[in-house]
Amino acid sequence: MGGVPALEEPLKKVLGPATAKVMAENLGLHTVGDLLHHYPRRYEERGRLTRLAELPMDEHVTVVAQVADARLHTFASSRAPRGKGQRLEVTITDGSGRLQLVFFGNGVHKPHKDLLPGTRALFAGKVSMFNRRLQLAHPAYELLRGEDAAETVDSWAGALIPIYPATAKLESWKLAKAVQTVLPSAQEAVDPLPDILREGRGLVPLPEALLKIHRPQTPADVEDARSRLKWDEAFVLQVALARRRHADAQLPAVPRRPTPDGILAAFDDRLPFTLTEGQRKVSKEIFDDLAAEHPMHRLLQGEVGSGKTLVALRAMLAVVDAGGQAAMLAPTEVLAQQHHRSVTEMMGDLAQGGMLGGAEHATKVVLLTGSMGAAARRQALLDLATGEAGLVIGTHALIEDKVQFHDLGLVVVDEQHRFGVEQRDALRGKGKQPPHLLVMTATPIPRTVAMTVFGDLETSVLDQLPAGRSPIASHVVPAADKPHFLARAWERVREEVENGHQAYVVCPRIGDEEDDPKSRRKKEEAETADKRPPLAVLEVAEQLAKGPLAGLRVEVLHGRMHPDDKDAVMRRFAAGETHVLVATTVIEVGVNVPNATAMVIMDADRFGVSQLHQLRGRVGRGSAPGLCLLVTDAPEASPARQRLGAVASTLDGFELSRIDLEQRREGDVLGQAQSGARSSLRVLAVIEDEEVIAQAREEAAATVAEDPDLTAHPGLRAALDALLDEDREQYLEKG
How far apart are CA 507 and CA 501, in angstroms? Predict the structure, then answer.
């Protein structure tokens, strides 16, 4: 092969340029190795025919069936006015149902010869409806026929047919044929698992696993292969993360220890409540990390309202005690302003450093956002550069080149999933030495996902709610089936307001998109598809103010408002001057108004599970119980309704995050590698394979501790290089 390892051979050399081009463009497969790692999605037993009775509409399907009859019709059309048009109708059956195949024009000749009654074949195409009957138009087919009938029956019955993830341009059996062509190269696959690990866990060698997954003789072969290939994916990924952790542990950082009588001690003395057991435990983990001589990399995840901000603020004050500065990065201006307000309120005169009336250990807390006036911005930048400000809270305005810190010791990133890795990296680059990093998220992440997605971070979990938080009752409101339920929802909002409380109404859209051609086109498409566009803040607010909520003070809040207007609306709502706030998901994180007790989410089926849980966490933050109503037009039996039912049935965010993930699947666990590349996980399922991932993490840590450069593991090194193409390598580098 001219010196190129067998698995790196380009497909165009082996399969020809035309097939290779389709594989590259549609499935991202470029080399023999790529194709060998394109595993079957499922297997059909040739003896047991696919059930035609269960065909899904509008999906590409592969069926095994027998031709019952075939009829050729002629007809007149604009193309063939003299009645010379031809249509072949073939009926196939599998015992459970019948299906019609149709072929037109010049395309009828070959199937007319091939598809004689009694012929068995594989058929693939998209299921459509014509004259109220299911059909496949111009399906591709492969006859199941050997040299003679007896051989066909013997060789096909009982064998497993691999069904590959396919596309309209590349049917499953064309992929199967291509795989058969390259399968001999599997013998040269270099095994990434260390021998001692593979033998200790009773896993088959990689060449055998590849052979068994593509050409299994029995279901046990498939099981052996999948168990082995899951380990490859879990282990190689965990080694990548373990090497990242190992490299971080080699970086120098300034240890930051709080002084016994500094600003943190003064702050703790003033707290009007005691910390929960969970807050104390997590704070200790963080303070131990801050005292180390290499940078902390910790993920703090906690339920909505579990007091993460307080834990983060205490860590920031510890760093100020130790002579450093701390920065908190928030995803939106509304949230940055909210954090700034709540931090300065919590700190009182401890936040008035350098001012008259400031406490003895006080520092300055500055806000930095993109929409600040020039003078305020200049002053904030000066306070950061001189070290006058110990704490800064801001949006990505903090990352700009102009922003200089005197001595940045800690970066706190709020709502991790909203920030690109580049943004975190740019902020970390502002320290003289790498600063400590604390990442916070209120979206609970199942343990295995945390191990996989944030495997380079140590994890702390806050799962206790502080005393005084009230329960939230959640209900689904089926507006289409039971309109009187929606009328009752608005009555409940009025009742809450009459009892001195406030309410949120959340909508998926703003409603001022008329000027935006893209949104206008989407809206038109929705209307022509007989679907109404999602409900909009501006329209709903107007309807409520004139109708069911007439007489109440209703205001709107959304992302396209001027920052000063947003801030003014939030202040009025927080002060209790506004009864009902109609908003987009701009209120999803961090907005804290303890007097708000009710939330109505319109078109709730258009939001994700985690997002609904986040939104719901905005109510019940005071002593009065919370109420969340999920309004939907989705039909009762639909997956969307089941999803909403799940949200209504539990307040456990970790349980909901599992449901969410099971429905969405994992995507690419390496996060930023979403550039159209296939997921790096093909057989490993993050939720189901919890045990494999946990064991792989331990094995990976041990392997990397013993041999950080993997000198003794060339196969593993090669698998890492294949997994970590340049984009993903950078993603992990920036962590």
Answer: 20
Joined tokens for residue 197: 């690990």
Helix, strand or coil, per DSSP, at residue 603: coil
Give how far the C-alpha of residue 567 lies from the chain's centroid of Cα atoms, to the nearest Å: 30
Distance from C-alpha of 484 to C-alpha of 452, rounded to nearest angstrom: 46
CB 456 within 8 A of CB 704: no
Query: In Å, what is the CA distance from 20 to each residue of 211, 338, 523, 593?
Result: 22, 54, 39, 58
Q: Which amino acid would we find at residue 527?
A: E
Closest C-alpha to 308, from 274, 273, 276, 268: 276
Rounded to whole angstroms, the Cα distance separating 465 from 167 reads: 48
At residue 391, φ and ψ (nearest 5 deg) are -125, 135
Q: Which residues contact 384 (CB under 8 A, 6 or more apart)?
A: 325, 366, 368, 392, 403, 404, 405, 406
Q: What are phi and psi of 274, to 5 degrees?
A: -95, 150
Q: Check if the beta carbon of residue 394 is closer than 8 Å to that of residue 367.
A: yes
Q: Is 697 helix (H, G, I), strand (E, B) or coil?
A: helix
Q: Which segment, 68-82, 123-137, 149-163, 255-269, is predicted with the most confidence on average? A: 255-269
| Nearest-angstrom CA–CA distance, 71 and 80 | 19
Q: Give 482: exposed, middle or buried? Use CB within 10 Å, 0-12, 13-18, 19+.
A: exposed
Q: Looking at residue 245, what is its pLDDT?
A: 85
DSSP 692: H
Query: Which of these ranges, 288-297, 494-503, 559-568, has the smallest mean pLDDT?
Result: 559-568
Residue 64 main-chain phi, psi, to 5 deg? -110, 120
- Tokens standing for residue 541: 């607010």
Q: What is the mean pLDDT of residues 24-28?
A: 86
Say if residue 209's pLDDT is above 90. yes
Q: What pLDDT shows up at residue 688?
A: 76
- For 245-285, the DSSP string reads HHHHHHS--------TTSHHHHHHHH-SSPPPHHHHHHHHH
CB 505 within 8 A of CB 540: yes
> What per-residue confidence (pLDDT) applies to 268?
92
User: Can you tell me the distance from the alpha carbon of 579 to that of 496, in angstroms, rounded to the nearest whole number?
Assistant: 9
Residues in the chain, total = 735
Nearest to 628 by CA among 538, 505, 480: 505
> pTM of the predicted model, to two decimals?
0.67
**Rounded distance, CA 561 to CA 537, Å?**
12
Half-sphere exposure of residue 631, counting CA atoms within 13 Å on the CB side? Answer: 21
For residue 145, with 0-12 CB atoms within 10 Å meaning exposed, 13-18 middle and 19 or more buried, which class applies? middle
The tokens of 628 are what?
């969340």
| Out of 78-92, 268-282, 470-484, least confident range | 78-92
Nearest of 719, 675, 678 to residue 23 by alpha carbon: 678
| Number of helices (H), then strands (E), in the chain | 26, 21
Identify the H or E element spanning 460.
strand 458-462
DSSP string, 48-77: S---GGGPPTTSEEEEEEEEEEEEEEEE--
Residue 11 has a CB neighbour count (10 Å cut-off) of 24
C-alpha torsion sign, points 329, 330, 334, 337: negative
| Cβ count near 104 (within 10 Å) | 15
Lowest mean pLDDT among 310-319, 488-497, 661-670: 661-670
Does residue 43 contact residue 89 with C-beta atoms inside 8 Å?
A: no
120-130/140-143 β-pairing? antiparallel
Q: Is the pLDDT of residue 305 over 50?
A: yes
